[in-house]
């Protein structure tokens, strides 16, 4: 899946590991002039030049400048280079290492929606969609079934969107919650996998479906190196 070149390829990601690993071999000469082949390899990241003695983590990852406040109507993560539209009726909750943004909605906060970022392919699109289907008590999809899925905009690209209704059992839960609905959009790139996932009682998710799409479409990558895009 191709993403807009001007957005994500030039941004820094404090929540990912290295965006690319450059492995190489070389050769050098020993003091007496014989050629010695170097066979060992190591990972080099885009942050390698900043790894000077005594450098702070912020300096190593290029985030030594304060992040400017988001535009009106937008919110952003304190460290990760993502911002998004503030959705009416959603309540921001404390995030976690995996949840860049985390929200609850519904009369009693029964529904939840969150944005997650994982390094690399995170197992691939199909594996993640089938993991979500399993949480809803559904059989796995086949590769050819991906073409039948709908899409929603995420980072300016068409992301596959899962829409499943059934008994929901989240991670660590022993009993499934009946009559739940899940919406999930997943965008895979070589350096990272980004997804937005919503779960809740089916009627409450139905009331927030358009807000889910609105949120997905609003997600942007912004640089904290002294300004936005």
Describe this structure in words.
The chain has 229 residues and is an alpha+beta fold. It contains 4 helices and 12 strands; from the N terminus they run ββαβββββαββββααβ. The relative contact order is 0.19. The model is unreliable at 4-32, 43-52, 59-64 and 224-229 (pLDDT under 50).
Please supply descriptive tags for the structure shown above:
229 residues, alpha+beta, seven-stranded antiparallel sheet, three-stranded antiparallel sheet, 4 helices, 12 strands, 14% helix
What composes the largest sheet?
Answer: 7 strands, antiparallel
What's the quaternary structure here? single chain
Record the strand order, biggest sheet: 5-6-7-11-10-9-8
Spans where pLDDT lies below 50 across 5 or more residues: 4-32, 43-52, 59-64, 224-229
Percent of residues in β-strands: 25-35%
> Distance between the terminal alpha carbons, to the nearest Å?
22 Å
Report mean pLDDT, rounded to a whole number: 77
**Helix/strand order:** EEHEEEEEHEEEEHHE
What percent of residues adopt helix (DSSP H or I)? 10-25%
> What is the alpha-carbon Rg in Å?
21 Å
- What structural class do the secondary elements suggest? alpha+beta
Count of helices? 4
Outline type: globular
Number of strands: 12
Concise description?
This protein is α+β, with helices and mostly antiparallel strands and 229 residues long.
